[in-house]
Amino acid sequence: MKLVWLHGWSLSNTDPAMVAHPDAPAIFVFDKPFLEQTRMAFPRLQFMFEAALEALAERHHSRICLGIQAEEIIAFAKLHHCTTICYSLIPSPELRRTLDALEQAGLKLEVYPVEYLTSYTGQVKRFSAFWREVEHEVLRG
Amino acid sequence: MEFKQQFSSREEITTYLGQMFKGLYTGEPRAPALHGGRSASLAQLEAFKAKNYGRRNHTNAPVSRLSAYLRHGQLSMLEVAEYIRSHSQGRERDEFLKQLTWRDFFYLVLEQKGLKVLENLEEPKYPMRWVQPMPDDILEARTNLPCVDAWVSKLVDTGYLHNHERLWFAAYTVHFRQIHWQAGFAFFREHLLDGDIASNALSWQWVASTFSHKPYFMNKDNISKFSSNQWCAGCRAKCPFDKTYQTLERELFGADYGWSS
């Protein structure tokens, strides 16, 4: 069984992991330790909550919660007998701690790449140089 | 702690979340200026016309307001690009796509640098004396500079600032007030609906000169021109920006680097 984990970069039912598993349980967690350490104005929280509500509205089994991100995902996975966590890969290093905890708990990770606008994979430093490399691809589509 | 998922109104959501998140947010519970969700994001996309996008640097020009939806994955980069390609044309189409590509660029930098984006990526290009934290007069919009106070109020009230206003505010805090860009990054992250680690931190570093060849700064003429004189008309403040670029360069950075020539 698979579980879809929505994170702050993937709050939509069009998220690649959601699309790949339309019948899987899905969860979004507001990470309490992060919110305790980071100043966050209330409207930002409601904006994310509204997006999560709509993203999960059609799911038979879904949960939005506040807690330690990894612990909440592990608990929801156990509840639905899920052994694989599906999520969209974004480059944020802030997710690393959660991913490590999920793996340590014995859960498998199934990663869905997020689409970039360009296929460029070289080192980047200045936008002007990057733009010269990708201009044709971006404008042509 | 699990949240309920059925609500009868947006006001009910605000009240409910105010209790559930108690102690974990700043300010008062109030609904965001933009409605979160895929439906709202599509409505925003369909309402946007790239026509006149060439005037995007003017604060009263039409801009897409898609950044919060892109930030939280309610729209994908590819679908926005495809929409613009098929619904607009010419230079304005190309300019929008170029601006959209900044987001790709920032994410690639984040992928390659990781949490290092939260520290100076390069040495500052001038002898900086940055301090923290952000002073109260800025946070509370009482600098007595109408433009600066308006940017802060708009940021706090709406969770949004026009890109040019973001640059001006960043230049004011980092160069004119010598506040570390990390304090500005945290302030923006607190309030911007599109606040993220990549675009936000790297844009502040771009202004500060730790992710660019030179610091970004502006003078009064620039603010007046691109704001349609919105704040300068009738302003009686002692304006720190009312100087030539050459003068500002010497005063702010301690030498004539030739950045303004």
Task: Describe, in short, the structure shown.
With 141 residues, chain A is an alpha/beta fold.
Fold blueprint:
The complex is a heterodimer of chains A (141) and B (261).
Chain A: E1 2-6, H1 16-20, E2 26-31, H2 32-37, H3 42-56, E3 62-67, H4 69-79, E4 84-89, H5 96-104, E5 108-113, H6 127-140
Parallel strand pairs in A: 1-2, 1-4, 2-3, 4-5
Helix pairs in contact in A: 4-5
Chain B: H1 10-20, H2 38-47, H3 67-71, H4 77-87, H5 90-113, H6 136-139, H7 146-158, H8 163-176, H9 181-191, H10 198-208, H11 220-226, H12 245-253
Helix pairs in contact in B: 4-5, 8-10, 9-10
Explain the overall architecture.
The complex is a heterodimer of chains A (141) and B (261). With 141 residues, chain A is an alpha/beta fold. Chain A has one domain: HUPs (Rossmann fold, 3-Layer(aba) Sandwich), CATH 3.40.50.620. Chain A has six helices and five strands. In chain A, strands 3-2-1-4-5 form a five-stranded parallel beta sheet, with helices on both faces. In chain A, α4 crosses α5. The longest helix of chain A has 15 residues, at 42-56. Chain A starts with a strand and ends with a helix. The relative contact order of chain A is 0.19. The model of chain A has no long low-confidence stretch (mean pLDDT 96). Chain B folds into two domains: 10-114, Serine Threonine Protein Phosphatase 5, Tetratricopeptide repeat (Alpha Horseshoe), CATH 1.25.40; 136-253, DNA Cyclobutane Dipyrimidine Photolyase, subunit A, domain 3 (Orthogonal Bundle). Helix content of chain B is 50%, strand content 0%. Chain B has twelve helices and no strands. Chain B has helices spanning 10-20, 38-47, 67-71, 77-87, 90-113, 136-139, 146-158, 163-176, 181-191, 198-208, 220-226, 245-253.
